[in-house]
Amino acid sequence: MNYYKGAVIGSDNFIYFRSEVKLQESDVLVLDDKKYFIESVDNGLLILQRVGSIISVSV
What we know:
Elements: E1 2-8, E2 14-19, E3 28-31, E4 34-42, E5 45-51
Parallel strand pairs: 1-5
Antiparallel strand pairs: 1-2, 3-4, 4-5
């Protein structure tokens, strides 16, 4: 299990979550009904960008 801490630019709040797969830059993250794009990984902190809708995801 991988544990992560994420932040959206312009927000003081952090998002804490776990994932069974290792996340990296450019991955898409879905937490409840909110979708995020991982813009970058900075010293273990995921910099997230909020996404309105996702058309398709390929693996």
